[in-house]
Design a protein that fits this description.
- This protein is α+β, with helices and mostly antiparallel strands.
- The chain has helices at residues 64-74, 88-97, 128-137, 145-153, 157-166, 170-183, 210-219, 226-233, 290-305; strands at 18-22, 25-28, 33-34, 101-108, 111-115, 121-122, 207-208, 251-257, 264-274, 277-287.
- It has a single domain (41-85, 121-305), classed as 3-Layer(aba) Sandwich (Beta-lactamase), CATH 3.40.710.
- It has nine helices and ten strands.
- The strands form two sheets. An eight-stranded antiparallel sheet has the order 3-2-1-5-4-10-9-8. Strands 6-7 form a two-stranded antiparallel sheet.
- Strand 2 (25-28) and strand 3 form a beta hairpin.
């Protein structure tokens, strides 16, 4: 599968459509070239402020053989354009007309298409996905099985903090999780090694663009550890199945929290099956409240479905 280093735009035109088909430039659909700028890099025991997360107690672990088999099979799935692609710009425009800011990116063949005015934001608990990959790649899936499940299915912050500390010091953990992003072709996003926004987690404040997240999800099935991590992402708790989670067969992870600038952010990365392939997508909303942001993500997922 083609790997593309993803560069992040700090400022994007409102509800504009952008296509990445060259590592050195952004192309607006039907418009002029725009130079890309580097993305920003932005411990307590918490990542997201989770409204009533449900934490399960049972465990999940995959054998190395099962993991390798699952990864090889999933790597063969082509990227499929969302059925609602033609009208999705109108959905984004309606959301932003209501006072929120949104961003959505999806894979269309070899390109990343981006819509919306919201710039690069904190990853919040979507950062638990590369964190989980890092833990599994270090051979810790058996020792951390309970925490892997809780962090990915229920977005449990205590479990995620345990995964982070299992990788070593903050500096070592940051390097290890960043290396997972590099494996997926992301040469720009950097996981911080210090707490930048108390009381939230070090890794949750990773500045991660929706473009880079969509590419990461396209490459995720090919990464070592996919059999463990993606199986958990397919079983997200029902209380967190908004947005992408409303689409049948979705494999995804959400994140949410209050940015320093005010309001509330909610975002997701994942995929859902379409016509024998998968639509790889990431989306983010900054609105007045958690419920307003997740309602807008519901609108985006309905727009993707068409």
């Amino acid at each position: 599968m083609w790997l593309v280093p993803v560069l992040c735009l700090a400022v994007l035109a409102a509800a504009g459509a952008w296509v990445l088909d060259d590592p050195s430039r952004w192309i607006r659909a039907g418009g002029p070239l725009v130079s890309a700028s580097p993305g920003e890099t932005g411990e307590s025991s918490e990542g997201d402020v989770s409204p009533n997360p449900n934490v399960a107690d049972d465990t999940h672990a995959a054998s190395p053989a099962a993991e390798a088999s699952t990864t090889t099979t999933m790597c063969d799935s082509p990227a499929t354009r969302p059925k609602g692609a033609a009208t999705l710009p109108d959905v984004v425009a309606r959301i932003e007309a209501g006072g929120a800011h949104a961003a959505v990116a999806y894979i269309d063949g070899d390109r990343v298409v981006r819509l919306g005015s919201l710039g690069i934001t904190a990853a919040w608990s979507t950062s638990k996905v590369p964190l989980a990959f890092a833990v599994v790649q270090k051979g810790l899936q058996s020792a951390q099985a309970v925490n892997l499940k809780a962090a990915l299915r229920s977005s449990d912050n205590t479990a995620a903090a345990a995964l982070w500390h299992a990788l070593g010091t903050d500096g070592t953990a940051a390097e290890t999780v960043s290396s997972v992003l590099r494996q997926a072709g992301d040469t720009t996003t950097k996981v911080p090694s210090i707490q930048t926004y108390a009381p939230y987690s070090v890794f949750g404040q990773t500045m991660w663009s929706v473009e880079a997240q969509a590419r990461f999800m396209e490459e995720a099935p090919c990464l070592v550890g996919a059999g463990v991590v993606l199986a958990e992402m397919a079983q997200v708790d029902s209380s967190q199945r908004w947005g992408i989670g409303r689409l049948p067969g979705a494999v995804f992870k959400g994140g949410w929290g209050p940015p320093k600038s005010g309001g509330y952010e909610a975002r997701q990365l994942g995929w859902y099956p379409v016509d024998g392939g998968k639509t790889y997508v990431a989306m983010s909303v900054r609105a007045s409240s958690f419920s307003a942001a997740t309602n807008d993500l519901d609108m985006l997922s309905a727009g993707l479905r068409g």
